[in-house]
Write a structure and sequence with these properties.
Blueprint (H helix, E strand, L loop, with lengths): L3 H9 L2 E3 L2 E2 L15 H14 L16 E2 L3 E3 L5 H11 L1 E5 L5 H14 L4 H7 L7 E3 L12 E5 L12 H25 L4 H4 L5 E10 L15 E5 L6 E5 L3 E5 L6 E5 L1 H6 L7 E7 L8 E10 L5 E2 L10 H5 L3 E4 L2 E4 L5 E2 H11 L15
């Protein structure tokens, strides 16, 4: 997943904090007409707010101090209507009765914790930067609030034989198996073609491991990346903060041994706006104790960088390419309007990750104006 043009931008442009570049990628050519000055101004404001000190308190739409239990569904008896009803309201759900064992999850966590004990030289050499994969951390001499993180391919492999991540590899594959099943059930509930089922090469998975530090605002400096769905195994009783479409920042407390499933921006576009989404990964919430330490292991099922994202068409509709380029399509005598324009995934992913737009939905600029 190499990016020759974007990697040059990443190396040449100055850092805002810990390696995140401030300049957005080239604007997708097929969306030029939708880039209004008001959207650019909102982006600039969001970037300005993002550069404020991490200890500065900013207002949220809802304080994540109180926690709520996510909607709970049994994976073994999951139905399309049941899943669609739950995630279309909140954008997240917890799964019980799944196939991922707690023993495997704990072994994967133990292996992941050891990654943060490596020297900085080892972290950078074992996990070379190949955006979006690789190691990233804040400057040791600058307390800028950026958490360390590792973004690994599904195999969770390294370039060195010194470090073996067998349990983490098995854990990532077990989560992906559950995630692909969820995507299949979800697309059936929406009544649309499942792109993953049509072509298994049309998706990829990233295991994202982040260190959680006491006192940091959840997710504020950890980077976002577009995804279809995200999965996190709940190893212990611990709150997580997430940024949802419907409620802003909220705190959730999933059941121990459940899997917290979050709907991402790609799924929202695929559903033509029917689904709510969660922006970024849920992050573990810690107190102010200086010795507090934990990690968040998230599997993101996403797309290859050369992908194009657009609302999916109902099953059985022919001439998909021609219909997908129209703002309206006549399906069975019923006119359906597109909510989103087509999105060049590579440009969008680069922009979402490096600009980290917390205060503005990055999908807004791709919405069809009425």
């Amino acid at each position: 997943m190499a990016f020759s043009t974007h990697e040059q931008q990443h190396q040449l442009l100055s850092n805002l904090h810990g390696g995140a570049t401030s300049a957005p990628p080239p604007t997708p050519s097929n969306n030029t007409s939708n880039l209004l000055s008001s959207s650019d101004a909102a982006d600039a404001l969001s970037r300005l707010l993002h550069r404020l000190p991490p200890n500065l308190s900013l207002p949220n739409r809802r304080s994540p101090s109180s926690s709520t239990s996510p909607p709970s569904l049994s994976f073994s008896s999951l139905t399309p209507n049941e899943l669609l009803s739950s995630v279309s309201k909140s954008g997240f759900v917890q799964l019980t009765d799944h196939s991922v064992s707690s023993k495997l999850a704990n072994s994967a966590e133990s292996e992941s914790l050891k990654l943060f004990d490596l020297s900085r030289d080892q972290k950078e050499s074992f996990f070379p930067q190949n955006w979006p994969l690789g190691y990233e951390g804040g400057d040791n001499d600058d307390d800028d609030g950026i958490t360390e993180s590792f973004r690994l391919a599904l195999s969770c492999s390294t370039v060195s034989d010194e470090l073996k991540l067998d349990s983490l590899n098995e854990f990532a594959r077990a989560l992906e198996k559950v995630g692909l099943n969820i995507i299949d059930v979800l697309t059936k509930g929406l009544g649309v073609v499942n792109p993953v089922e049509e072509d298994p090469t049309r998706f990829s998975s990233i295991m994202w491991i982040s260190e959680c530090l006491a006192g940091n605002k959840p997710g504020s400096r950890s980077g976002f990346y577009p995804f279809i769905i995200g999965l996190q195994y709940q190893i212990r009783c611990q709150k997580h903060s997430l940024l949802s479409d419907s409620s802003g920042w909220i705190s959730v407390l999933p059941h121990v041994d459940s899997i917290l499933v979050t709907v991402g921006d790609i799924a929202q576009v695929w559903s033509n706006g029917k689904l709510k989404k969660v922006r970024g990964r849920p992050m573990a919430t810690l107190g102010d104790e200086n010795d507090s330490r934990c990690i968040t292991m998230s599997l993101l099922i996403t797309l290859p960088t050369e992908s194009n994202v657009a609302p999916l068409l109902p099953i059985g509709i022919k001439d998909k390419v021609e219909d997908a380029d129209e703002e309206e399509s006549d399906i069975g005598g019923e006119v359906q309007k597109k909510v989103f324009n087509n999105i060049d995934f590579e440009d969008y992913a680069w922009r979402v990750y490096h600009e980290c737009l917390l205060f503005k939905d990055p999908l807004d600029r791709y919405r069809v104006t009425q």
